[in-house]
Amino acid sequence: MSTKNLQLNDSLDLLEDRKHLKKALRNAEKRSRLRSLGLTAPLVVFLLIFFALPVVYMLFYSVYTPQVKEYLPRFHEALQEDNAVIPGEEVFQLLAKDMRSSKKAHTLARALKLFRQQDIPLWRLLKKTSRKLPRQEVVSMKAWFIQHNQAWGKAETWADIRSIGSVFTPFYLTKTLDYKYSASRGLQRVEEEERLYVKVLLNTFGISMMVTLIALCLAFPVAYLIAHTKPKTANMLMILVLLPFWTSLLVRTYAWIVILQREGLVNQILLSTGLIDAPLEMMHNRFGVYVTMVHILLPFMLLPIYSVMQAIPDSYVKAALNLGANPAQAFFRIYLPLTLPGVAAGSLLVFILSLGYYITPTLVGGAKETMVSMLIAERVNVFLNWSLAGALGVMLFIATLLIAVVGRRFLAAGTMGSQ
């Protein structure tokens, strides 16, 4: 009996030790995870402050329109509480009072800014009414408004006022797609002469795609040369590739301006050799934008392709040649598919960087080379229209996000195919 009791006690002690060991192991794993989180915390905080918060701020400002609430506060509050199709006397009274106080403070134009941007007839109605407001109180302000203009007694007028006067409105988001929204008329396409933003967005995509294609055609053979040449030569070539990073973006752009302008180096050489009779226009057009942007973004295409090529064993192509494939077949059927992950990564990187480029197209391009980034800067710095700038930023952000998702899937498919 004593032997059995001893064995039972030993088994219980062993189970207890296992429990303590598992608990200690879990605690050690928790401490290890906490240390890892502590190491990544500065990066997470940095991304939250300098990336996530600006994006959220941009999204917020693209739909935030508080002008009516700020400059006509009593009218705005009363209108929110009055759910009638045509509001009651109190709303008309407060609208007249807020209009008078805004005129005295010289803020009426700011209060009616949204109406001027979204609905010109309604803006004119409000402006004319504000000019003819009676200086003294009348028995019924509602009757005076309707007598002044029959539009004040229509449900469509008040539906549009409620929509435009809302603190949050999709007006600027729809405007970036060349549409306008009205509560009474729904979603409509803007007039032909006002259709600007979709053209600029397509222009931005066209320039970015062409820059990416040219950079790919130039970077692929150079990356192949660096990956398959002697180490000493490869190091020299890599230094030449990385050399542009040692100078400022602005300096590189101005260098191309000096080279490509009418009195620049290229035109002087061509004129002196007799190849041309008059200087070529290579500045403030699409050609200058392509040349400058490709030169600046070429390393971002070359480096991912080179890193993938360097990891491809030479034995793969040699095996294909030994099995009877000619050099072209070995390259296109064996080597090229293995480089697709690098090609996809470089193309995605260059395309996304091109979408948001501002300095180079501004200095080198012309009116036909307007990109979304230039419109955003103009709306912020010239027109002080932060809401429209935010909406344009949202459109560019969504486009970049979609391209990144599609490119990532293509990159994953290329990696699986190469394996």
UniProtKB/TrEMBL annotation:
<feature type="transmembrane region" description="Helical">
    <location>
        <begin position="39"/>
        <end position="64"/>
    </location>
</feature>
<dbReference type="GO" id="GO:0005886">
    <property type="term" value="C:plasma membrane"/>
</dbReference>
<protein>
    <submittedName>
        <fullName>Polyamine ABC transporter substrate-binding protein</fullName>
    </submittedName>
</protein>
<keyword id="KW-0472">Membrane</keyword>
<feature type="transmembrane region" description="Helical">
    <location>
        <begin position="287"/>
        <end position="309"/>
    </location>
</feature>
<keyword id="KW-0813">Transport</keyword>
<feature type="transmembrane region" description="Helical">
    <location>
        <begin position="330"/>
        <end position="359"/>
    </location>
</feature>
<dbReference type="GO" id="GO:0055085">
    <property type="term" value="P:transmembrane transport"/>
</dbReference>
<dbReference type="Pfam" id="PF00528">
    <property type="entry name" value="BPD_transp_1"/>
</dbReference>
<keyword id="KW-1133">Transmembrane helix</keyword>
<dbReference type="InterPro" id="IPR000515">
    <property type="entry name" value="MetI-like"/>
</dbReference>
<comment type="similarity">
    <text>Belongs to the binding-protein-dependent transport system permease family. CysTW subfamily.</text>
</comment>
<feature type="transmembrane region" description="Helical">
    <location>
        <begin position="205"/>
        <end position="227"/>
    </location>
</feature>
<keyword id="KW-1003">Cell membrane</keyword>
<feature type="domain" description="ABC transmembrane type-1">
    <location>
        <begin position="201"/>
        <end position="407"/>
    </location>
</feature>
<feature type="transmembrane region" description="Helical">
    <location>
        <begin position="239"/>
        <end position="259"/>
    </location>
</feature>
<feature type="transmembrane region" description="Helical">
    <location>
        <begin position="383"/>
        <end position="406"/>
    </location>
</feature>
<keyword id="KW-0812">Transmembrane</keyword>
<dbReference type="InterPro" id="IPR035906">
    <property type="entry name" value="MetI-like_sf"/>
</dbReference>
